[in-house]
Amino acid sequence: MGKHSDLLARHKEVLPSWMALYYREPIAIVDGEGRRVTDAEGNTYLDFFGGILTTMSGYRVPEVVAAIKAQADRMLHTSTLYLIESQIELAEKIAALSGIPDAKVFFTNSGTEANDAALMLATQFRKSNQILAVRGSYHGKSHSAVAITGQKSWSATSLSPFNVSYVHGGYKLRSPFGHLPDGEFIDACVADLRDMIDIATAGDVAAMIAEPIQGVGGFATPPDGFFAAMKGVLDEDGILFITDEVQTGWGRTGEHFWGYQAHDVTPDLLTFAKGLGNGLAMAGVVARADIMDCLKANSISTFGGNPLATAGALANLDYVLENDLQTNALKVGNQLMNGIHRIADEVPEILEVRGKGLMIGVEFGDPADLAPDVTLTAAVMEEAKAGGLLIGKGGLYGNTLRIAPPLSITEEEADEGLEKLKDAINRARHKEEQS
Ligand SMILES: Cc1ncc(COP(=O)(O)O)c(C=O)c1O
Asked: Is the predicted pLDDT of residue 1 greater than 90, yes or no?
């Protein structure tokens, strides 16, 4: 038995069946450097998914590793009952970067927890449990995060602490308003939002939460300005706007540091996770001070923002800023986007290429009726892996490739990845034709 099949057998014995694994023959990644990883059987890959957009700066970044080692040499943990200098410094930097006036930061261990905290703050601040979420959304795995998840395949339960209404988002391809030009599409979504608030809610909605580009939803990307128009309606009733930047933050979209900035809007709350820790458990919520401080009960976070996580995250954030990885995401993202469009010109089953910066979705389906092609998408994933390229998958039907390499990717690596992707698509289509 090979190492991977042995691990898979043991994994199945003791880990949940619903914890999805990629690939017919799942792999264990045991080593990495830059944008390349090695699996437990010695195969190497160019990594265009970075552990779900989380290894943001790349593997084994010396500055980040050194900061983690130095902190580990001193101590790992104290709890939020004590002052933590690296936590304070990181909060100062994030508050200043957030674009939210008079901002405060609460650190958590995951994006789920960050969204839980944001929803707790918004519902307490507004004294309402009514939330607007977006169709096709994904915000995490707890009861409250699943309650605002707009995708059946990720909704493990309907139990909910909230009263949730779903509004239209930016996924034009399958939207009833999708045939409209961008401006009219936005108008139609805004009219629907107004209708939803007036007709389907009890009138005192707490907040709307949205991903500027939907991650698990398949990198569905609304036209620029979409959320400013939506917020115009929210502002009429004092409804808070929570931007979930778990996937779109830290410069990944290239044009902006945060996804919300494509929309000329100021959020009331912002959640982050994934990339900041470059793999450390590090997440949080940023809110205006009046919202952050509205809770009357005590709270702690035993692990949230602990010395190890904040020391590593500080070093990683400094690395991202000092090396201007946002500009790299814009440059190499455009290169990848152009290359993928060239591939798509030859592949009728590619229905849409979308996204921004280093967040590119490729949706597969039947060009005649848009029926999702889940089989071809899965086959491309397998062929890419066989050719030494790791990519992600998502979309409402699992029919969208998600291409999201570390922000430090080079132009040479982008070209190499494009070749591998093209070959994988060609091989997958060829095999499908023959079967
Ligand atoms: C947009 C978004 N929000 C929240 C989450 C939940 O984050 P975590 O898995 O760290 O709990 C995810 C995870 O994929 C996400 O993509």
From this structure: no
Concatenating the DSSP letter of every residue in 296-321 gives -S----SSTT-HHHHHHHHHHHHHHH
State if residue 244 touches ligand 1 by the CB under 6 angstroms criterion: yes
At residue 241, the 3 state secondary structure works out as: strand
DSSP 196: I
The answer, yes or no, to whether any atom of ligand 1 lies below 6 A from the CB of 172, is: no
Q: Which of 282, 293, 352, 270 is nearest to 317 (CA)?
A: 282
Percent of the chain topping pLDDT 70: 100
Q: How many residues does the chain have?
A: 435
Q: Which protein residue has the closest C-alpha to ligand 1 atom 2?
A: 139
Q: Which of 180, 133, 153 is nearest to 400 (CA)?
A: 153
Contact by Cβ (8 Å): 284, 114:
yes
pLDDT confidence band for 335 (50 / 70 / 90): very high
Is 421:392 a contact under the CB 8 Å cutoff? no
Q: What is the pLDDT of residues 210-261, one digit of tens each?
A: 999 999 999 999 999 999 999 999 999 999 999 999 999 999 999 999 999 9
Q: How far does the centroid of ligand 1 lie from the alpha carbon of residue 215, in Å?
A: 8
Q: Is there a contact between 254 and 357 (Cβ–Cβ < 8 Å)?
A: yes
Number of C-beta neighbours around residue 12 at 10 A: 11
Residue from 62, 156, 30, 108 nearest 306 by CA: 108
- Condensed to tens digits (0 to 9), the pLDDT of residues 13-57 reads 999 999 999 999 999 999 999 999 999 999 999 999 999 999 999
Q: What is the DSSP letter of 198?
A: I
pTM: 0.98
